[in-house]
Write a structure and sequence with these properties.
Strand order of the largest sheet: 6-9-8-7-10-11
Distance between the termini: 89 Å
Radius of gyration: 31 Å
Shape: globular
Largest sheet: 6 strands, mixed
Number of strands: 27
Structural class: alpha+beta
Helix content: 40-55%
Oligomer: single chain
Strand content: 5-15%
Number of helices: 31
């Protein structure tokens, strides 16, 4: 055996500890050995600058006897072709040159696995590429000491022989999950660029960890005059463990911030210095700015002049892709993956690893921010990002800090009422269960619930290939067994326990206010999303059920004001389609849901029941956004306890389109635009690129992009308008909740009613549209009354 040209033999544990492994290494590594069954062979120029190493051939490769000639391979080389790299320019090799049993390498005998890995070493050691491109985990593990292509993809790293290596996702992964195609496209571009030279890009970095107080203060004073400043906090046990600062992508300081690190006087001096640099006029760069700003506010530190948030910029630029810093860094920098470096520092007690990790984070954020800015400029989105996203950071931070005032008496009443219902339902269920299986059951145990249902001779519905006992399954069973004594208690227990655990058992701050976190670009269309606060207190305020809002009230001497955009999404659809019948009904203030119900049920509007009207509302929403009859029927079951046969569900959806044909013309226009450009742009300038394969799922996402995005941007105009003139409490998609002193109520409403100052007139296909508003006031969030 020989290790050719610096290649080390494959480092399997068996090589070190098993004599049998050592023997096999010698036996199989020889090029003369005939025991390895080769169904394909590597091909391409041996002096190619690019060596692609795949795991093994697919069955689709066997007819040609060449690697990556199947559909997945065509996808890969289609991406390379965009950057002038053809198949004939590249050397392609495989770790294993035969299809393993079931297409799974691990199903080979261990001895053969080892042999193939060492055989691959011998083959590729003869080559001198500028860059090696391992596809997937197996190939990556053979040429490096890494094991996860998910983590290391797009990183420019060094192989065990010192050759530049850029791991990519295996193209078969893209076949299964086509939304990941941008990673492969960028990977092809990066490989093409890096293949021009063999040197690995290396950047010298100067990280200051655990500096003295004097060094920290001197460094922070210098940073106060920086033009741009990146900062990042690391937290644990409800405290800030350390905070990193960087004024460029190569130099950073990590400042330990735990009280145990300093005496009381030094601790105050440190935080005063941190507060000064955070308030300095430099343009601040953060990843998840609102989280860091909320945490720092607990320390009395205010971060001023937020210039860029890499997390929201990622969601703005690539709504379909993950928005973690690891993904952002691999897309916008050449920094090798580092996000595992300190994931277990607490168990190892290697605090130094955390400090170095913090420096990598803060420098990576700085570097990525400027690359994202170039991307925004290239796509003509800079102003839109600044106006529609970045300008809202202070508003969202204010909402998170203000929170909602809790009426504890009312919360306890609601909680007691819910617990009473749970106890009553549990008694009913246990009584029925005892008569069926001879014992009580735990309704939170899916296994015990399934056993009870089987004992009651009910056939459980199948979901994703498995028997299911979730709420939807129970509701389906109740339609078949309406007299069952166990199904209604199980369903209602699920509802009441959800209410108790998700909305009534939260903790809140000593000043009586429930605080939370908000993300100003939490969804693909740009809608906000809500969470509990950084310390795990509170709830998602945007999803609090209407009947539980009574526990949130105005502060003493203040009044709540809620502003809603009236039927906003449906209006944007009607005007953008355009659908003249809908537009006319909106202008005439017709009850559209009752009208739709009258048409689909072929009944006079005056005879339509409340249930039929509610169904008419659901039909309208489902039809506008291309929902299939199966999904529509499932939603009716879950939300209305209404069993709609698929034929009836289809009839209702088709009936809507029959009377409002403009909606389908609008959907066809969207499909054509997405197929032609892969993009949609809103009237406010937001742009979404659609990466997935064309099909119903993609088209439904496209239908549902522009209307909610427009509505979100309109209500955010009011948020910006009211900042400094009212206490901002919450934005909920198409509404905003404010709080003002009692004496300022009329003046605030007048400011809201001055719609020329904030409510834009939208130029849509069907004409100009200004979405009407409803204003409600009161002391209790649930009991607000409309102002006429």
């Amino acid at each position: 055996m020989r290790a050719c040209d610096g290649w080390a033999p494959f480092r399997s544990p068996s090589h070190f500890f098993s004599p049998r492994g050592l023997f096999l290494l010698v036996e199989f590594a020889s090029s003369e050995n005939q025991k390895l069954l080769r169904e394909v062979h590597g091909d391409g120029p041996e002096d190619a600058r690019i060596l692609i190493l795949t795991d093994f051939p697919s069955y689709g490769d066997l007819p040609s006897g060449r690697l990556l000639t199947d559909y997945a391979g065509r996808i890969l080389f289609d991406q390379f072709r965009k950057f002038s790299v053809l198949r004939t320019h590249v050397r392609v090799e495989a770790v294993c040159e035969r299809v393993p049993p079931g297409g799974k390498f691990f199903l080979l005998e261990h001895d053969e696995q080892t042999a193939w890995k060492n055989d691959a070493f011998e083959r590729i050691s003869r080559l001198r590429p500028n860059v090696i491109v391992p596809l997937g985990d197996l190939a990556l593990s053979v040429v490096t000491d890494k094991t996860s292509s998910d983590k290391w993809q797009l990183s420019v790293i060094e192989s065990v022989r010192g050759t530049k290596t850029i791991p990519l996702l295996h193209p078969s992964r893209i076949v299964r999950q086509f939304k990941d195609i941008p990673f492969l496209t960028l990977g092809a571009q990066r490989v093409a660029e890096q293949a021009r030279f063999p040197d690995i890009p290396r950047i010298s970095r100067d990280y200051k960890t655990s500096p003295s107080l004097e060094e920290t203060c001197a460094f922070l004073i210098a940073l106060e005059s920086a033009e741009y400043l990146s900062l990042d906090i690391e937290t644990g046990r409800g405290q800030i463990t350390c905070i990193g600062f960087a004024a460029n992508a190569r130099e950073a300081i990590c400042v330990p911030t735990l009280p145990s690190d300093y005496d009381p006087i030094s601790f105050r001096i440190l935080w005063a210095a941190i507060a000064r640099v955070c308030a300095a006029p430099s343009k601040k760069i953060l990843q998840n700015a609102i989280y860091d700003m909320t945490y720092l506010s607990k320390y009395g530190v205010r971060v001023r002049r937020i210039w860029h948030d890499t997390m929201t910029a990622q969601k703005f630029l690539h709504p379909e892709l993950p928005m973690g810093l690891d993904t952002i860094a691999r897309l916008y920098t050449l920094r090798p993956y580092w996000k595992d470096d300190a994931k277990d520092w607490g168990t190892r007690q290697d605090i130094g690893a955390l400090y170095r990790y913090n420096c990598e984070d803060v420098c990576g954020t700085f570097e990525a921010a400027f690359a994202q800015r170039l991307d925004l400029e290239k796509r003509n989105l800079t102003k839109t990002y600044e106006d529609r996203v970045a300008s809202l950071f202070p508003c969202a931070t204010e909402m998170c800090w203000n929170g909602l005032r809790v009426d504890e008496t009312e919360r306890q009443r609601l909680k007691s009422e819910t617990e009473g219902k749970i106890a009553e339902l549990t008694t009913q269920l246990n009584s029925a269960a005892t008569s069926i299986v001879g014992k009580e059951i735990n309704p939170r145990s899916p296994m015990q619930v399934k056993e009870l249902l089987r004992a009651a001779r009910m056939r459980l519905p199948v979901k994703d290939g498995k028997e299911s006992s979730d709420k939807e399954a129970l509701m389906r069973l109740r339609l078949k067994h309406p007299d069952s004594p166990i199904l209604t208690p199980l369903i209602r227990l699920s509802e009441e326990q959800k209410k108790l655990s998700s909305y009534l058992s939260f903790t809140y701050d000593p000043d009586g206010r429930m605080r939370y976190s908000l993300n100003v670009h939490g969804t693909e269309p740009g809608r906000w999303s809500g969470y509990c606060d950084p310390w795990g207190n509170g709830v998602n305020p945007q999803t609090v059920p209407r009947d539980l809002r009574s526990m949130f009230v105005a502060s003493e001497g203040h009044t709540l004001i809620e502003v809603d955009l009236a039927q906003a999404d449906a209006r944007v659809v009607a005007w953008n389609a355009p659908e003249p019948t809908l537009i006319q009904m909106f202008n005439d203030k017709t009850d559209i849901h009752r009208w739709v119900a009258g048409k689909i049920f072929r009944s006079d509007k005056a005879l339509i029941t409340d249930t039929q009207r509610q169904l008419g509302k659901k039909v309208g929403h489902a039809s506008n956004y291309g929902m299939h009859e199966k999904t529509f029927a499932e939603n009716c079951l879950k939300e209305m306890n209404l069993n709609l046969p698929l034929a009836e569900a289809k009839r209702l959806l088709d009936g809507y389109h029959e009377h409002l044909p403009g909606i389908r013309r609008w959907q066809a226009r969207i499909r054509e635009e997405v197929l032609r450009t892969r993009k949609l742009r809103t009237p406010f300038g937001r742009e979404r690129v659609f990466y997935d394969r064309p099909g119903d799922d993609l088209f439904r996402e496209a239908y549902a992009y522009v209307p909610p995005s427009v509505v979100c941007d309109v209500i955010n105009c009011l948020v910006l308008r009211m900042r400094g003139h009212a206490r901002l409490l919450l934005q909920v998609h198409d509404s905003v909740l404010l709080e003002v002193p009692d004496g300022e109520t009329i003046r605030t409403i007048e400011r809201i009613r001055d719609e020329d100052a904030w409510n834009p007139t939208l130029s849509l296909v069907g004409g100009d549209l200004r979405i009407p508003i409803d204003v409600k006031i009161g002391k209790n969030w649930k009991k607000l009354e409309k102002v006429t």
